[in-house]
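Late entry, KG4 complex.
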Amino acid sequence: MKILAIESSCDETAAAVVEDGRRTLSSAIYSQVAEHQKYGGVVPEIASRRHTEQIVQVVQAALDQAGCTLSEVDKIAVTAAPGLIGALLVGVNYAKGLSMASGKPLIPVHHICGHIAANYLAHPDLEPPFLCLVASGGHSHIVEVRDYTDFRIIGRTRDDAAGEAFDKAARAMGFPYPGGVYIDRAAPLGDDSKYRLPRPRVEGSEYDFSFSGLKTAVINLLHNASQKGETVDRNALAACFQRAACEVLVDHLERAAQAYGYTTIVAAGGVSANSGLRGRLGEMCARHGYALYLPPLELCGDNAAMIGAQAYYEQLVYPPAGLDLNASASKGIDTVF
Ligand code: KG4
Ligand code: ZN
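Prediction complete; structure with ligand written out below:
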């Protein structure tokens, strides 16, 4: 079954054709990052406008690269939540239009489920159940993936998401937006024990995360140094921040895996591209003899192939959406659209 998938939840306009949830026939991405960079973050209004301008060409590019026409795909999938509402609406409305014009069924997909499903495209042997660390710009979750469409969150962030913390800390250090990848590049050049940074815990919850204290510690350290006229070793600060963030992510995941009895561990989302996190996950899983699945770098960030992968499993279980489908900025991972 060929699914044409559309993703427009943030600042990437993306479309892909995916076969049977496992094979990427094409994946087209128009990134707006360069434009948002000058504002230090995504400007929602600009994002919506660029999606509107780009979506026709991006969908056509995905069909062309896959060597098929709209009439040759079986179903149409779209990210319906969560994300920037104006951005989501562009994809949802375009997908509804394509569905109505072609008569092909419409499959709504949750963005986080899509990130998890990116792993199905890269790892043919991966099947639920498994425990997944989802770390992106908007979310930090420890998710029990009990089946392809059955998710249970056992840990989540109480404040900033992991990627958000990376980006805010990077901004304070003077790196461009989005800063996660710049911290990743600087970290191996610095001493990761030079500065003392906290490992924040959440009172009363073993698996929840809190990253705002870590981000604030970086900002305070830079502020205090500048007031005293001291220079900060930016590579070392990047290394210390990355170590602290990754230690917390992997430590919580490790305890969750032990408590819930999972031996298959998966990572997903933009932050799973982080070399420190990948290394630390590898060590933890090797220590316990767990099987570890990491998405290839090109599937960590936002793309539409991951939406097409998850859509395949959604349509096996749920009926198609009607033309009354709406986008939602904040619906949870267990949403039935
Ligand atoms: O999953 P994603 O592309 O978009 C959301 O759904 O949010 O994640 C984007 C986030 C950004 O915060 C970005 O800085 C972070 O992923 N990111 C990284 C790396 N590459 C992307 N963070 C740390 N290290 C990286 N190599
Ligand atoms: Zn994402």
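Residues 10, 115, 136-138, 163, 166-167, 178-181, 184, 269-271, 273-274, 301-302 surround KG4 (ligand 1) (CB under 6 Å). Will revisit in the morning.
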